[in-house]
């Protein structure tokens, strides 16, 4: 007959198996660290090179040629940062999934993606509308806000700590809406520093 310790071990194994099938656990801590570094470098370039640091919500000169040129450069810079971040996350998550003997793309990953995509698409569309109205100061705050909502949604499909990160991003987004002049700084903290700290935490808790 099985002893008490055997039953406990069986329960632990069953719980672990259920968690693997219901949670996306292939997120890599290094992906968070690298994404945070990309964001900090991107924010620095936007501020120092393209002189992008809106201190008011509405710009009275959205049609200015020099301003429009810099804004377009910031847009492409953000796109590059996004592509680098996503590519790194996919590559490192794939390596982690292989190491764990799991598939990267499964039902859980699909649920995670859907729950993140809906608020992110809504946020992008809203930001584009506001940019067309000259409300440039909302760019950084709303990216934080909608990204935080996306993480909060996605937390049901991955590590529980992601919910806390989502709430932090939402909080930074709301703060930067009130203090518009610190919008880019809050963005750098949210997408840069917070990601790096979370990545280090994730790596040391789940990957070592």
From TrEMBL:
<protein>
    <submittedName>
        <fullName>Uncharacterized protein</fullName>
    </submittedName>
</protein>
<keyword id="KW-0472">Membrane</keyword>
<keyword id="KW-0812">Transmembrane</keyword>
<keyword id="KW-1133">Transmembrane helix</keyword>
<feature type="transmembrane region" description="Helical">
    <location>
        <begin position="67"/>
        <end position="92"/>
    </location>
</feature>
<feature type="transmembrane region" description="Helical">
    <location>
        <begin position="135"/>
        <end position="152"/>
    </location>
</feature>
<feature type="transmembrane region" description="Helical">
    <location>
        <begin position="112"/>
        <end position="129"/>
    </location>
</feature>
<feature type="transmembrane region" description="Helical">
    <location>
        <begin position="187"/>
        <end position="204"/>
    </location>
</feature>
<feature type="transmembrane region" description="Helical">
    <location>
        <begin position="24"/>
        <end position="47"/>
    </location>
</feature>
């Amino acid at each position: 007959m099985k002893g008490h310790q055997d039953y406990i071990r069986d329960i632990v194994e069953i719980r672990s198996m259920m968690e693997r099938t219901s949670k996306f656990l292939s997120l890599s801590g290094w992906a968070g660290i690298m994404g945070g570094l990309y964001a900090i470098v991107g924010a620095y370039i936007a501020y120092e090179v393209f002189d992008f640091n809106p201190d008011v919500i509405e710009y009275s000169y959205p049609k200015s040629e020099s301003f429009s040129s810099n804004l377009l450069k910031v847009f492409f810079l953000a796109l590059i940062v996004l592509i680098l971040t996503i590519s790194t996350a996919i590559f490192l998550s794939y390596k982690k999934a292989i190491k764990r003997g799991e598939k990267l793309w499964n039902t859980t990953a699909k649920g995670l993606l859907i729950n993140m995509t809906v608020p992110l698409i809504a946020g992008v569309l809203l930001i584009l509308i506001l940019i067309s109205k000259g409300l440039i100061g909302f760019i950084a705050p709303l990216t934080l806000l909608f990204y935080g909502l996306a993480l909060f949604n996605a937390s049901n499909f991955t590590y529980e700590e992601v919910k806390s990160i989502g709430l932090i991003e939402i909080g930074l987004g709301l703060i930067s809406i009130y203090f518009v002049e610190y919008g880019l700084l809050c963005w750098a903290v949210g997408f840069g520093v917070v990601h790096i700290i979370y990545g280090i935490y994730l790596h040391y808790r789940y990957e070592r």
